[in-house]
Amino acid sequence: MHSNSARERQFDAIAKSTLLSSLCDDVFNGVFASPNAHELWKQIVENHEDLVDVANQKYHVLADELTSSKQLDNESALDMFSCLNTLVNEINNIDLKQVTNGEVNRKIICCLRKPDYDIINTVFAQGRLGQQDT
Q1: Contact 81, 108 (CB under 8 A)
Q2: Is the same domain home to 73 and 127?
Q3: 97 falls within a domain
């Protein structure tokens, strides 16, 4: 019975060492004091779940910001596009749900102030008319 306990401790030490050697420094520093491999694994899983929760929260905040974006009175279309592009890149870097090019295009058009929107609308209408002639 004593040798079985020593053997279990040996396997636990190997498992714990293997887990710890595969972690980045940030995660390692948060979990290295775990008493055994099982507790270490539980802490790693909890940390991962917390990170997923944070990513979900960040995604929703950025998505809400994207949804509520509008072109400001003193803002050029290029400046508005730059702000939207930054938001889209941040959302896509989270890797939960990607914002498609079509969604970005629709958002840009919806955000434009009346004069800029009229210009885009005219260009689209001319493009559609040109396509009908061919």
Answers
A1: yes
A2: yes
A3: yes
